[in-house]
UniProtKB/TrEMBL annotation:
Localization: Membrane
Main localization (coarse): membrane
Source organism (scientific name): Streptococcus loxodontisalivarius
InterPro entries named among the record's database cross-references: ABC/ECF_trnsptr_transmembrane
Pfam families given in the database record: CbiQ (PF02361)
Membrane-crossing segments per the record: 24-54, 66-86, 113-135, 246-265
Protein name: Energy-coupling factor transport system permease protein
PANTHER family listed in its UniProt record: ABC TRANSPORTER PERMEASE (PTHR33514:SF1), PROTEIN ABCI12, CHLOROPLASTIC (PTHR33514)
Length: 275
């Protein structure tokens, strides 16, 4: 089992060959398109497209299981809070309330379930694309792509260092945890939840503070080498946009245009099947 929560994985295929800039623009534009509209037909199609691209990347479940589990828990909690704070919001949006489960103020209607379903679909649109981008783009190429779209290379380089450093921290955490378990500290599923949380925190907190010291060391070393003196810099992983990259960017722009078109057609962000 991989010790990394998430990070770049080498692979073959179209997604791995695309420039980081085209993948970044595709992710940003499609995410904006999915966030702008609540047209179920559109976001369902985008969810299917995201899952298909994810399948094409051939990323193993063991490499993303923890991250997906955390996101699923967060999504479920978010949907629950939306319902608890406004169980009749769907009825207000769609102008109708068909009660399925009668429970007073917390009655469940078809319209509320439809609204929550749309919210859930948005996770299927954006989360797979985000994971795909991170796992198919080399950190150095990611930094170069940020520079290509006009972001300061200082920021781009900071992002690159972060993406490189996170996997190292994860590896150290698992190494320390394994050594602690070898000394008799039970941190596996055999131990209770509270015990595991306390044990992992005892490892994570000192590791975080030691990481902050390393960041200061790296920053000082870069300053001594006069990093940031010039306005521009070259990139080892810079990749010129090819026809596949331009096709990816054009597809993202068409998807964004379709999203705005549906907003105009529906006379709002929401698609109302009861209208």
């Amino acid at each position: 089992m991989s010790n990394r929560l998430i990070g770049y994985h080498e692979g073959d295929g179209l997604l791995y060959g695309l420039s980081g800039a085209s993948k970044l623009l595709f992710f940003i534009l499609v995410s904006i398109a999915c966030m702008m509209t609540y047209d179920t037909r559109f976001i369902l199609a985008m969810g299917v497209l995201s899952m298909y691209l994810f399948y094409q990347a051939k990323i193993g479940w063991k490499d993303i299981s923890f991250v997906v589990t955390v996101i699923a828990v967060v999504a479920a909690f978010n949907l629950l809070m939306v319902y608890l704070f406004s169980p009749h919001y769907g009825a207000e949006l769609y102008g109708r309330e068909d009660i399925l489960i009668s429970a007073g103020y917390f009655s469940v209607s078809s319209q509320e379930l439809f609204y929550l379903f749309n919210l859930l679909l948005k996770y299927f649109c954006t989360v797979p694309l985000a994971i795909l981008f991170l796992m198919t783009t080399h950190p150095s190429q990611f930094a170069a792509s940020l520079s290509q779209i006009g972001i300061s290379y200082r920021i781009a380089y900071s992002v690159s260092l972060t993406l490189r450093y996170i996997p190292d921290i994860q590896e150290e955490f698992y190494t320390i945890r394994t050594s602690q378990e070898a000394r008799g500290l039970e941190l596996s599923k055999k131990a209770g939840l509270i015990s595991r949380i306390k044990g992992n925190l005892q490892i994570a907190l000192p590791l975080i503070f030691s990481s902050l010291e390393r960041i200061e060391t790296v920053s000082t070393a870069m300053e001594l080498r006069r990093f940031g003196k010039n306005k521009k810099r070259t990139w080892y992983k810079y990749q010129v946009l090819r026809k596949e990259d331009w096709a990816t960017i054009i597809l993202a722009l068409l998807i964004l245009a379709l999203s705005f078109g549906l907003i105009w057609l529906n006379q709002g962000r929401f698609y109302n099947p009861w209208a």
